[in-house]
Amino acid sequence: MKKLSYIFIISLGIFAITSCDIDKSPYDSITSDDLAQSETSAMNVTLGTYSRMKAWTENWHRLFEYPGDNVALSGTTSDPLFFTYNYQRIPNGSRAAGFWRSSYQIAVSANQVIGNVVEGSSESNDQILAENYYIRALMHFTMVNIFGRPYNQGVNNPGVPLKLDAEPLNHPTRSSVGEVYDQVEADLLKAAALFTESKSNVFASKEAAWALLSRLYLYKEDNQKAIEYADLVMNSGRFSLVPTQTLGDYPKLSPESNTETIFAVKFVRDVDYESNGWFTIGSLYANIQGAGWGEMYASRPYLELVREFPEDQRNNFILPFVVNEAVTWGFYVRNNLNYGWTPLTPVGDGFEYTHNGTTKTVETSLNERGGISYFIDTDEGRKRILIDKQLDLRNNFPKYFITKCSGQDDQAHLWSPVVSRLAEMYLNKAEAAAKLGQNAEALELVNVIRSRAGIPANGLYTMANLGGKSVMDVVMEERMLELAWEGHRKMDVFRNGRTMDRRYPGTHLVGNNPKTMIQPNDNAIIEFIPEAQLLVHEGLTQNPS
User: Fold this and answer.
1) Which of 196, 292, 312, 413 is the most buried (most CB within 10 A)?
2) DSSP code for 408
3) Is pLDDT of 494 > 90?
4) Are 417 and 408 a contacting pair, CB within 8 Å?
5) What is the mean pLDDT of the chain?
């Protein structure tokens, strides 16, 4: 008998959430009758589903974040993440296969509740149903954006199978992108209408449904609705932007104590990562407290953008690995692929360096908003530099550790991945406003985020100081800055018909036929359907090579 790898048997580790902790306990063999007759059973299955989402977040993060231009891998790896990072997809990669499998396991778990709990039978049952509709929507939405083309490239393009029941031998074939979006929309609207209470932000909520609807409508280019649902979240009174002085510590806050997080997948100190997190999302980005591989660094374009204003608190998400405080280097890019560096000598308020036997002054350049860039002469011509103390190198790449996925509750790589937060709502609304020609409002919303980041008043945008950029360019840059390493950048680029420019140092440029400029119509922007699924799933079709 043919079997899908996501055949579901309810035997889940569950967790109970208190005000400050999550305890995990075993849970076995809930039947449909149990679910129909017991609110407690339905809640236990739902808690188990939340628990399963912890493992789901690892491949979710990698598949959405690594193909973007915020990251730079410093060496090759046998981990299949490399094939997503460099757009050299393989049909049997374990990362895509794991994401497919876990997403459908979670969807089937949600369906188990949806199919057996009677709507309207009690407020608590409606709450449980709402949470499961949200979870099912989130699974299908993320799946269609990994395995299907962006919505605006054609609603009839192949999407993913819509799994709307808990029958293990019911194997739906691929629905279209448009059909999947329609189902996600319907599930989220249903969820939003059913919620009866406001739990903490590690549970689905009405506002979490609104937030995901805002993103969905933005991806559909239904800009008025994207604004409408962003406004619902912003005006709900439940969330506020964390203050400027707290922004750099965002990942260190537990979700429940973070006023900006709308929904996050909760991880618990000394429970989820007892080894201090070597095999976590953050461990590839940094070595902290002696833990972590520290091999994937902040990209050169991100560093150049965030460093235009030293006051920008988002600089605190970058940790340069300094090995000699007494030496200052100017780092520049050589031939797109490698770094070079020049020793700098502090002189007054600036620096000097030696080029071809001549002592020269580092050139300081200010843009229209007072943003700072530095330049020197090299054998390859004039180069923009980043000024740092002498840094440790890995394969000639300076170690610019990323800390945005580490440090929760003072544990090295503990992190509760954020699905939605308030800053995204401001930026969703800004993007939608820009597309509707509401330029002044779009810039005002961008400036809220820039001001919160600590950028001074002269660094805010007006129509008079865009410096040749469009308002949409400004919104895209701010999304890149604010939402980095949260799984947005790949979709932001390609759904807007833009080119992913990866002409910067990183091992995505090594090997045969590296992809430096990825066009939005490139087949490589969507993952292959896992090969193992094609073998067991009759009627399932593969994405083009």
Assistant:
1) 413
2) G
3) yes
4) no
5) 92
d(CA 329, CA 318): 17
User: What pLDDT shows up at residue 33?
Assistant: 55
- Selection from 148, 137, 146, 141 nearest residue 176 by Cα: 148
Write out pLDDT tens, residues 197-239: 999 999 999 999 999 999 999 999 999 999 999 999 999 999 9
CA dihedral over 404, 410, 414, 415, signed as positive or negative: negative
pLDDT tens digit string along 58-114?
999 999 999 999 999 999 888 888 999 999 999 999 999 999 999 999 999 999 999
Q: Distance between CA atoms of 380 and 377, rounded to whole angstroms?
A: 8
In Å, the largest CA–CA distance within the chain is 84
Residue with tokens 């649902």: 229
The encoded tokens of residue 489 equal 């950048």
Q: Residue 207 half-sphere exposure, CB side, CA atoms within 13 Å?
A: 28
pLDDT per position as a tens digit, 153-183:
999 999 999 999 999 888 899 999 999 999 9
Residues of 413-436 as b/e, b for ≥16 C-beta within 10 angstroms? bbbbbbbbbbbbbbbbbbbbbbbe
- Measured CA to CA, the distance from residue 335 to residue 47 in angstroms comes to 51
| Other beta carbons within 10 Å of 460 | 17
- Asked whether residue 372 carries a pLDDT value surpassing 90, the answer given is yes
Q: Does residue 30 have a pLDDT over 80? A: no
The helix or strand, by DSSP H or E, that contains position 324, with its residue range, turns out to be strand 322-334
Question: How far apart, in whole angstroms, are the C-alpha atoms of residue 259 and residue 250?
Answer: 10
Q: In the structure encoding, which two tokens stand for residue 544, read together?
A: 């083009």
With H, G, I as helix, E, B as strand and everything else as coil, classify residue 71.
Answer: strand
Write the CB contacts of 248 (distance below 8 Å, at least 6 apart in sequence): 313, 314, 315, 316, 317
Give per-residue burial for 524-542: e unless 16+ CB within 10 Å, then b: bbbbbbbebbeeebeebee
Among 76-90, 461-475, 513-527, whose mean pLDDT is lowest? 76-90
Give the number of C-alpha atoms closer than 13 A to the C-alpha of residue 256, restricted to the C-beta side.
15
Helix, strand, coil % in the chain, rounded to nearest 5: 40, 20, 40
Between CA 284 and CA 402 the distance in angstroms is 9
Q: For residues 307 and 368, is the Cβ–Cβ distance under 8 A?
A: no
Q: What pLDDT score was predicted for residue 38?
A: 58
Angle, helix 39-65 to helix 123-147, in steps of 10 degrees: 20
**How far apart are alpha carbons 262 and 204 in whole angstroms?**
9
Phi, psi of 355 (to 5 degrees): -135, 120
Bridge partners of 390, per DSSP, are 324
